[in-house]
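Here is one such protein, fold included:

. . .
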Amino acid sequence: MKILKKTGTLGQLRKGKTIIMSHLLLRDHTRKLAVSFVSALFCALSMNLFLVPAKVYASGINGAAQLITDISRDLLNLHLSIGLIVLILNLPIAWLGWCKVGKSFTFYSFVTVALTALFLTVIPVHPLSPDILLNAIFGGMLSAVGVGVALKYGISTGGLDIIAIYLTRRNRNSSSGRYFLILNGIIIVIAGAVYEWQYALYTLISRFVNSYVIDMIHTKYQKLTVISVTEHADQLVQAIKDQFDRGVTVIPCYGGFTNTKRYSIMIVISHYELYKMEQLIKEIDPDAFTNILETNKIIGVFHNEDEQQAVQAIKHGQTLKDGKRPFSEQEYEHFQELFRSKPKSDRSDRFPLLDK
């Protein structure tokens, strides 16, 4: 009877934990969909109320769609919908992101793209001011709010974000900002060459305002260092390894006033992983003290998402997707040996440097 009672209790605990996890996942999904809606609305308003009437061009794919519709109307007398062009241009990018960047990130990004295309179609183009400079400034600010809020919650507005992430992962020594600069520069030069150069210069002003406001809302740094002081080092480190596969440094420490034993967990992440990391720390230890630092440069190993997925596959004894290895044979053998030799035993002495 005692055994049956204990088994029933364990079953109830597992069921309760499953319900809690499902509730958290649903809440996170609802929050991201709401963020996608708000972000798309701000981006569409910035274009139809400020940028489009002034012929000041938005960033990325939205700006390319704006330029295509302007050229087709003025030179070919062909009237195209900006929303439709935005959706069409993002379809191959969404496929690239789904296959190469990440399914969850791409899904929410494409939802934002689809909503932006919808809002661009239903919201009428109506200038609020005849002043081109005011339109450039406020259009850049409004679109920055949409982009910044999306990035803050771990999604994007699609387009160049996905392309830049993919190209950066193929060349880990380069910055995604370089690709944004090149692709946006092409749009600005074409706009200046086809129309008057003043529109290109006003577009530059709008891009500067846009970048500045995004940095205020989110972060301009591609990589961040997270330092979290916690009592639950075992659980937090294990959760980070399961979900991120990034190296973690554990530093024994003491509270300066309370003299309480703690651990400082230090990890470097990309700015797209910030929201996920914040939620993970809150879930494991709501009382943890976390400091997020801007990281200018990294000297050493920093795995991209493809390499993280490969390490995860090796850890669980799975075959790598398509048989491709994103790192060298020596690194592959190193990880195999690492996970083969690691004992799955009690973790009570995992961090022996801190006396209990």
